[in-house]
Specification:
It is built from seven helices and five strands. The protein has helices at residues 2-9, 19-30, 34-40, 54-63, 91-101, 129-137, 142-165, and strands spanning 46-51, 65-66, 85-90, 104-105, 112-117. The chain is an alpha+beta fold. The two termini are 23 Å apart.
Length: 166
């Protein structure tokens, strides 16, 4: 449901949701603000941080769906790009990524932040803007948190405008 709400706010279809679930989500989104949505969508994935060699970062990027403000996505949130790779991976694919890229948990500096989930929606390329914004809204960095909350609120406001026109 959390991914469904974030996909819908991004203007994308959520084909894994049934008609009644979509109806219920539309009702929730009518009365939602960015803070509440962030809190409700928090359990969509577990976040794990790893150290990774520079030479393996590109390989990590091929195994995940990029998210938050990593790489080219940083400009969407008016943030400076960092060298941290962040994205989504299925629970089944996590062990392969750890092994192939020699990721080490508990080591510094953190170079890879993975959001691990069993219910990763199918697709390629970066996660939708709503998912990226929710990731940032959960950040401990105040600039990232603000950028994520502002973007989520803009998506919610835009969603409301479209709902009223329909």
């Amino acid at each position: 449901m959390a991914f469904g709400a974030l996909y819908m706010l991004s203007g994308l279809d959520a084909p894994w949701l049934g008609r009644q679930q979509r109806y219920r989500l539309r009702g929730y989104l009518r009365q939602m603000d960015a803070e509440n949505l962030t809190r409700l969508a928090r359990r969509r994935a577990t976040t794990v941080e790893y150290w990774c060699r520079d030479s393996n970062l590109a390989e990590v990027e091929t195994l995940i769906r990029p998210s938050a403000a990593t790489g080219a996505l940083a400009a969407s949130f008016q943030l400076t790009a960092t060298d941290v790779v962040e994205g989504y991976v299925t629970a089944d694919a996590l062990n392969d990524a750890i092994r192939q890229c020699r990721l080490k948990q508990g080591a510094t500096p953190v170079r890879v932040r993975l959001h691990v989930t069993d219910g990763l929606p199918a697709g390629e390329g970066p996660m939708p803007l709503g998912v990226c914004a929710a990731d940032l809204a959960e950040s401990n960095d105040p600039r990232e948190r603000r950028a994520g909350l502002e973007t989520l609120q803009q998506l919610i406001d835009e969603y409301h405008r479209k709902e009223h026109q329909a």
